[in-house]
Amino acid sequence: MPSTARTEAAGAVHLPVMLEEVIARLAPADGEVHLDGTFGAGGYARAILGAADCRLLAIDRDPAAIARGRDLVAASAGRLTLLAGRFAEMEALLAEVGVTRLDGVVLDLGVSSPQIDDADRGFSFRFDGPLDMRMSMEGPTAADVVNGWEETDLTRIIREYGEERFARRIARAIVAERADAPIETTARLAAIVRGVVPKSKDGIDPATRTFQALRLEVNDELGELDRALLAAERLLAPGGRLVVVSFHSLEDRRVKTFLKARSGRGGGGSRHMPQHPDATRAPSFRLESGGVEKPGEAECRRNPRARSARLRHAVRTDAPVWAGGTR
């Protein structure tokens, strides 16, 4: 008997966020080669293939997403190639199929609707399920982190990745509770967090930030993003378009910092994108709008998950790639 979450997920309609804006900024044209770095449920991929007679390569680290995309591959008349892996590895993945230059890259960051809606994946506390959160279904789970990490390390990731001011209180409660029995389900973890974090006036569940922090840690999402931005800089041809849709401030801040630096509008760096001392280098990207774009009210009413979306885009110049590698 399928669980309620599985039944709901099977019948759910996936709504790609800011789809019109993404296609307008990506501007696919006949004969071009584009990359959808986060295939997910295939919403952007369908729209890109429908917008022009172009070739599309799509990456996803989730085996379930790759399996879902087989019908679209079959219907694409050879124009769509699905690649299993991480988008930070896009250069190596594309090289395997003979692609070394792109006209466009789109990244839709974060967790996909099918992942959220499947209780067995453990991304959400809306339904009880195993505390997993792995996008690739490989490596340590969120339960491994919750039950194995020291209190100081739990505090750090909940504070940094969840931007949670009660991080120390939450970590202390987790350590105390796991002494009785391992914390293995989303429902138990959410209950622990709710027991020590006061309800907010905005109605956001007290467990939201802790779950976000664990997901980012388990999947190294911010490190993957840093490396993917550098890879896109190397792969995009002059005039190539980069479009990134993010869903929380940590992601958006990284994209903003990267594009400001590479467009000559500001410095900054991270562990993966060190700031180069040569401030005179030619910009490798050109910003064509004032900054961030947000979804309209109509879309937010139609799809509540769009409310936190932020879109940034830029066009690759003919300047050399900035030095520094991926680390």
Automatic annotation (TrEMBL):
The keyword rRNA processing applies. InterPro entries: RsmH, SAM-dep_MeTrfase_MraW_recog, SAM-dependent_MTases_sf. S-adenosyl-L-methionine binds at residues 42-44, 60, 87, 108, 115. Its EC number is 2.1.1.199. GO terms for cellular component: cytoplasm. Its main location: cytoplasm. GO terms for biological process: rRNA base methylation. One of its GO terms (molecular function) is rRNA (cytosine-N4-)-methyltransferase activity. Keywords: Cytoplasm, Methyltransferase, rRNA processing, S-adenosyl-L-methionine, Transferase. Pfam families: Methyltransf_5. Belongs to the methyltransferase superfamily. RsmH family. HAMAP family: 16SrRNA_methyltr_H. This is Ribosomal RNA small subunit methyltransferase H. It comes from Marivibrio halodurans.
